[in-house]
Amino acid sequence: MRVAITTLGCKVNQSESALIRGSLKENGHEIVPMFQNTDNLSTSRFRPDVCIINTCSVTAKSDYQSRQMIRRAVKTGAKVIATGCYAQLRPLDLSNIKGIDLIVGNSQKNKLHEYLNTLYSDNFRSQNNCKTPVLIDSMDAPVTCGPYSSNRARAFLKIQDGCNFSCSYCIVPRARGKSRSLIPEAFLQAVEDFHSKGFKEIVFTGIHIGSYGLDLKPQTSLLEIVEKTVCTYPEPRLRLSSIEPQELKKELLVLIKQGSVCPHLHIPLQSGSDRILKAMNRGYTTSFYKNLVTEIVSECPDISIGTDVIAGFPGEDDQEFENTLRFIEELPLSYMHVFPYSDRPDTKASALEGKVKKAVKKQRVRKLLEISKKKKYDYISKHLDSCLDVIVEQKHITTGFYRAISSNYMRLLVKSHNLLIGQRLPVRAITYTDGELIGIPL
Length: 442
Hints:
- There is one protein chain.
- This protein has 442 residues and is an alpha/beta fold.
- It has four domains: 2-135, 3-Layer(aba) Sandwich (Rossmann fold); 139-262, Transcription Regulator spoIIAA (2-Layer Sandwich); 267-382, Transcription Regulator spoIIAA, CATH 3.30.750.200; 387-441, CATH 2.40.50.
- The protein has 14 helices and 19 strands.
- The chain has helices at 11-26, 60-75, 85-89, 91-95, 112-115, 122-127, 172-176, 184-196, 222-232, 251-258, 274-280, 286-299, 318-330, 358-382, and strands at residues 2-7, 30-31, 50-55, 79-84, 102-104, 134-135, 155-158, 160-161, 180-181, 201-205, 237-240, 264-266, 304-311, 335-340, 387-395, 402-406, 411-414, 424-433, 436-441.
- The strands form five sheets. The chain has a six-stranded parallel beta sheet with strand order 2-1-3-4-5-6, sandwiched between helices.
């Protein structure tokens, strides 16, 4: 069967889609694009038989994009399966989309290969005439790993799922459940598999990776499993995805300085106002965050630190936003992800008063993005004429050069005509023009 998989949202979804792809291929299915570059889509050999849409629900925009992608999938004439966080949270919303055949919750993703043949069975069609089957289980399924298949140059290993925090704006715990960890034996086996497949970088990802191991018996930690990984498999470079400020252990900086872990950390801030942070239930203050980031940069001067910021949280007045701007300007950040606040149903923040107008949120986002652009420029400029450890990700269609990513999370174009996707090599950064960092192999 020809199956197309489309992924929206975070690195966890990307990792899970790679496991879905691996499981399907192991069971004899062919992975194809949802849309081919051909005008002959009416010919069946160019069309997928099944489209799987791995949805996201972190914002209202994510919901909209998920619905739009499902509708595009329906137009291919294929059977359509929706899974992921939007499917988990709003299955009834999705069931109203004409042409969708199956809705599968997050805990059922690893069983998708079992459901494909049933989509075409007469019994399935007769039992589900005029309604869409919904398979939503409890969200306490253990984190597992399996056959992994991805076209990406870097491997994404989901080491943890779920979240025990209760940020007032966040719907993710309702979509993912409590924190659960991949057991160390499976963790190390997955790293071995990635290493044997030639991946030069492995990204440890999860919903809340700082809580890794706290649910296991005996307990372990993110620091312990990273230390064990770099001792056992020193060749691939390791990268950590987003980690909460309260959970970043200073001992990780030792591994970064040793070169065992990429000199890049993503540490969400969300607001530069202590009152707003309290309303968000973030569990730290601006002074704590500033001291943490300052100490990290003092220990690792070349490190790239990124963050997330929400603009227009309920009750955020003009002065608090200005405080956020000034606070961020003082931080040694290299980039920011900026989001306008998005009401999520069934969250505490959605019931708060003082909602900020859409136009004001848009204006605040624009100001934050201006700061982000300057910080990115300053960080990149500091590394011009320096040697970067990069991994080639894809060939750039327009220039014929190659897109690559450095260990300190700078994306660049490499001037060369004979590189391989996934290749790791030293590159000298030579110029930054028109928003593109250019490098040459050494």
